Amino acid sequence: MSRALPPLLLGLMLLAIWETACRSLQVPAYFLPPPSAVAMSLVERAPLLAGSALQTFRMALQALLAATLIGGGLALAVSMNRPAERAVRPLAVALQVTPVVAIAPLVVIWSGLDHPDRAVVALAAAVAFFPVFSGVLTGLKSADPDLERLFDLYGAPPLQRLWRLRAPSALPFALEGVRVAAGLAVIGAVVAEFVSGSGATQGLAWRLLEAGNRLRTADMLAALACLMVMGLALNAGIALLERLCRARLA
Amino acid sequence: MRYPGRSPLGPIDLVVDPGEIVALVGPSGAGKSTALRLLAGLERPTEGVATSADPRHVAFVFQAPTLMPWADALANVALPLELSGASREEARRRASAALAAVGLGDRAGARPRQLSGGMAMRVSLARALVTEPDLLLLDEPFAALDSVTRRRLIEDLHRLWAARAPRPAIVFVTHGVEEAVYLAARSVVLDGATGRAASEHDHPGPLPRPPGWRADPAFRGAVERLADALAEAMPPAGVAA
């Protein structure tokens, strides 16, 4: 608990400063509402926000799952064959450096204008793909070279080498990749929702847009707070998974 | 049995008799480890041939224990057997016996990080011996250990070697002159500049060594002779190795 105390104290202190500043300087509420107003909005709109948060969380999670399966699977396949790796890597990098905002309108068209949720999942998966792919590929090559030699010496078949040596060596790298990908999946989901621009997905990004259009700044900040908490929770969950795996592996 | 090998610098012609213990000594960079890996078939010679025993009957011990950190001692020792197609039960049973032979019968369930450096090296040795190899290759296996642990492991290696019938041939790389003279019946000194075998030395005394052998004048004399030969094989002073 003592480790959580300093950030908690800092947070409370910043909130207090914010509250006092808003009140004493009489900042207009549409410009910057005090934290108390944001808290009020959180309470009042709790059912709506919870539903939206769940929706965004579900889409981000689906995207993360897809990215993990596709990224991990592709890395596994490519690691068995060097020319294939050389062929695929530049494409993976190209996908990574292309801004998600820029491909979003295309994906929205491709997935059908009636299915913005599909576009959101696809886009979030596209952003989350690279860290998983890269992590798994790096991990598969990270095995102790002397252990690799030992497997050579005993004539290990490729699948045995993969299963007994490379996969366990890769696991910490893969989990690190998934942790980074989780954060990106949330970002991807929100960006995609923004770009698709329809209320059909009813996620947190839509709550932000909607409140922004009405200049309801406290509602915007409340949605933002939900996003932040969601990101933190996702990160903490995967960090926990990582710790459990590390304890088993080392 | 012949084990000629050619290092990148070589050639060295190394003939090891069955059951013989041979030390490869030489300055850093003389190609000792490369020669050993050629013998194991882990590397291919740039030129010429490195023929050796049937690779199935060769075992290798690296300088570090080189254990899989996610597997316990028993699974690490069972690995070579399982990779060469033995059933899980048979591999576990033989691995268990091999662990007991190196004095770690009670640590079968321990992970490598739960073992001391000496114990991890014993597990590594058990993994090498579990396949009952005809040729055991060791690449500076005791270099990272403290002197007490090192001496114990050397005694253990002699004991394990003597207990097997027929005895396996052992070739090991070291830059410890005393270690070479104590552990091996013969040392081959590799020249630092050419990588060729500069000289060969037979070491006196019975194997395994009798108690107090390190204080014996015959042992001390052999150590001095090998040390002199090694000094000659060093690259000239002032030349960076």
TrEMBL record, chain A:
InterPro entries linked:
MetI-like (IPR000515), MetI-like_sf (IPR035906)
Please list every transmembrane segment annotated in the UniProt record, as residue ranges: 59-79, 91-113, 119-140, 180-200, 220-241
Main location per the UniProt record: membrane
Q: Which GO terms describe its biological process?
A: transmembrane transport
Q: Which residues form the ABC transmembrane type-1 domain?
A: 53-242
Topology relative to the lipid bilayer, per the entry, is: Multi-pass membrane protein
Domain of life where this protein originates: Bacteria
Which Gene Ontology cellular component annotation is one that this UniProt entry carries? plasma membrane
Q: Where is it located?
A: Cell membrane
Tell me which UniProt keywords the record has, alphabetically.
Cell membrane, Membrane, Transmembrane, Transmembrane helix, Transport
Q: Which PROSITE patterns match?
A: ABC_TM1 (PS50928)
Question: What family is this?
Answer: Belongs to the binding-protein-dependent transport system permease family.
Query: Per its record, how is this protein called by name?
Result: NitT/TauT family transport system permease protein
Protein's organism:
Brevundimonas viscosa
Q: What is the lineage of its organism?
A: Bacteria, Pseudomonadati, Pseudomonadota, Alphaproteobacteria, Caulobacterales
